[in-house]
Design goal:
142 residues, mainly alpha, 5 helices, globular
Length: 142
């Protein structure tokens, strides 16, 4: 991975966590944070996607694929709602919660990639997943 991609991933990571911490700082209830962030995210994604679809003349995927991805997106919407509510909750340490979510993403990504795409991790990656599992244990205990 080149340095440009490292900056891109850093920007994405910062963007994914910034709204959550900022909404807690601003005193948003999780439901309101969810609405504002989802609308802002959706509007930006629609505008950028439309640009790429038009300029690159992308054809639409099959309807069955659209339906499957839309259903998964609805599950993601529910997850974002849970995320926003828990991050905004003053009784839950936001940073620990957000790191645990990120670590679970590290754990789930290779499993889904293997099941759906057949991507097999090498021994170094497997060791990384084991470390991620250890991180969940350490973050979840007092």
């Amino acid at each position: 991975m080149n340095i440009g991609m490292i900056f891109v991933t850093s920007f994405i990571g910062l963007s994914f966590i910034a709204w959550a911490i900022l909404s807690k700082f601003l005193g948003f209830h999780g439901a309101w944070a969810n609405v504002v962030v989802t609308l802002g995210t959706g509007l930006t994604a629609l505008c950028l996607s439309r640009f790429y679809i038009v300029t690159q003349h992308l054809s639409a995927p099959p309807l069955k694929s659209i339906i499957i991805l839309f259903c998964v997106a609805m599950v993601n919407g529910y997850a974002v709602s849970l995320y926003a509510r828990n991050v905004a909750n003053p009784e839950i340490p936001a940073a620990i919660f957000m790191v645990m979510v990120s670590v679970f993403m590290v754990i789930w990504a290779p499993i889904l990639d293997y099941v759906l795409n057949g991507a097999t991790p090498d021994i170094r990656q497997i060791f990384g997943y084991m470390c991620a599992t250890g991180a969940i244990y350490l973050l979840g205990t007092k």
